[in-house]
Amino acid sequence: MLTLPLQVIDSFLLQYNIGQVFLLLLVVGLLATLPMKSKTIVGAHIVLIGLLLVLTPLSLMDNDFIYRAIGLALVFIGPMVMVVGR
């Protein structure tokens, strides 16, 4: 039933670490929110992905500090996008 799609997703995700998956979610989410033309929603999405990158343990991201730095940058960029949208 649902085992085939889950196996496909699992085999895809095993090739990447969680930081790369979160960055993919950022890009896909931004593409999904752009048609709404709401900078508040785009800013909230950026902040959410930034928080996910900051709060995820480094052991899940192969001890790459770069993803945590990108997360911190996104946490600061997101509110700026929200303010510009008003």
Structural account:
76% of the residues lie in helices and 0% in strands. By secondary structure, the protein is an all-alpha fold. It comes from Halomarina halobia. Pfam families: DUF8006.
Which descriptors apply to this entry?
single chain; 86 residues; mainly alpha; flat; membrane; transmembrane; transmembrane helix; DUF8006
Q: What's the structural blueprint in terms of helices and strands?
A:
Blueprint: H1 3-13, H2 18-33, H3 39-55, H4 65-85
Helix pairs in contact: 2-3, 3-4
Rg from C-alpha positions?
15 Å
Could you spell the SSE succession in H and E letters? Answer: HHHH
Beta-strand content estimate: under 5%
- What is the mean pLDDT? 87
Q: Which descriptor suits the 3D outline?
A: flat
What gap, in angstroms, lies between the N and C termini? 46 Å
Question: What is the number of beta strands?
Answer: 0
Helix content: over 70%
Number of structural units classed as domains: 1
Protein name: DUF8006 domain-containing protein
Keywords: Membrane, Transmembrane, Transmembrane helix
InterPro entries: DUF8006 (IPR058319)
Pfam families: DUF8006
